[in-house]
Amino acid sequence: MLFSRETPAAKRRAFREALASGDVLRLPGAFNPLSARLIEDKGFDGVYVSGAVLSADLGLPDIGLTTLSEVSGRAGQIARVTDLPTLVDADTGFGEPMNVARTVQTMEDAGVAGMHLEDQVNPKRCGHLDGKEVVGLGEAVRRVRAAVDGRRDPDFLVMARTDVRGTEPGDRGLRLAVDRAKALADAGADAIFPEAMRDLSEFEAVASALDVPVLANMTEFGKSELFTVKQLGDAGARIVIYPVTLLRMAMGAAERTLDTLNAEGTQDAVVGDMQTRARLYELVDYAGYNHFDSTVFTYEPGQNNQH
Q1: φ and ψ of 87, to 5 deg
Q2: What does the angle CA 115 – CA 120 – CA 123 come to, to the nearest 5 degrees?
Q3: Could you tell me what reaction this enzyme catalyses (predicted)?
Q4: 48 catalytic per annotation
């Protein structure tokens, strides 16, 4: 009811403990607070807030156009409604190293459990597009150190993402990714996000070189195959994200529904595919608000059509 029953500090501690357990944590991407509720209800381990999804939600491409206030505001809305830890995409940190430190503290205030920070130049690009450029190693290290120095809660997870794999072909790109991941971990990163790995052997190469957890990005239509959780765990990954999956499914369904309305003049043919009124009310805990006022929730399934 209302918001999460857990404090942000408790969720951060739980996230750290779960990572230390050795289990593979599954974090689907939430495109709004209600979808975060659904992720928790289905038994996942955490919630991911994707920069690409937030950009798309605003009708923008993923090229660094969103602001710190937009990202932290949406991340805070999502984190507030779930007891699960929330990991947020902070792009390149929204500025120079001093801005990165402020970004960390703003995300702490938003109640999220951690964020990842990447080493692309500005303006950045989607991690699975060609033509990316990264900053020099020194600048990437300064960003991570600023993030670590800026945090006030030692349990807040600072993850470093490197996009260097996509800047060079073949084995050289992988060697650069491994070397940079090690340097970012040495700079204080609590976990590493090696973007655009080509296959399981590349995940394994990065994970085996590090003493910190590694994240695997299972985004559709990208550079990586869509591996199973078991395959990724066997390769050494400890976090798996599905950043755009729910948004893509929701938008696909929305487009098909609009086509049906255009073609048939009614949505009747797709009502069976919809989330019912009863299920929506369950997710928002409508009945729980009777704690404040017993007249708030008087709905019963089947009353005035359960949809």
Answers
A1: -110, 130
A2: 105
A3: (2S,3R)-3-hydroxybutane-1,2,3-tricarboxylate = pyruvate + succinate
A4: yes
Dihedral (Cα; 115, 121, 126, 127), 10-degree rounding: -70
Residue 223: the pLDDT is 82
State yes or no: is 195 an active-site residue: yes
Residue 189 sits at the vertex; the CA angle it makes with 105 and 247, to the nearest 5 degrees, is 70
| Count of CA atoms in the C-beta half-sphere (13 A) of 121 | 7
Reply yes or no on whether 116 is catalytic.
yes
pLDDT digits (tens, 9 = 90+) for 79-94: 999 999 999 999 999 9
Query: Which segments of the chain are extended strands (E)?
Result: 25-28, 47-49, 86-89, 114-118, 157-162, 191-194, 215-217, 239-242
pTM of the predicted structure, to 2 decimals: 0.94
Provide mean pLDDT across the span 159-178: 91
Residue from 151, 161, 165, 180 carrying the catalytic annotation: 161
Of 37, 40, 45, 126, catalytic: 126
Q: How far apart are CA 59 and CA 53, in angstroms?
A: 10
Tell me the three-class secondary structure of 2-31, residue by residue. Answer: CCCCCCHHHHHHHHHHHHHCCCCEEEEECC
Catalytic residue among 108, 217, 238, 248: 217
Catalytic member of 40, 45, 118, 155 = 118
Q: What pLDDT, on the 0 to 100 scale, is given for residue 234? A: 98
Please, what's the b/e burial string for 146-183 (b: 16 or more CB within 10 A of its CB; e: otherwise)? bbbebbeeebbbbbbbbbbbbbeeeeebbebbbebbbb
> Considering 45, 108, 195, 202, which one is annotated as catalytic?
195
Return the closest-CA partner of residue 218 out of 208, 228, 210: 228
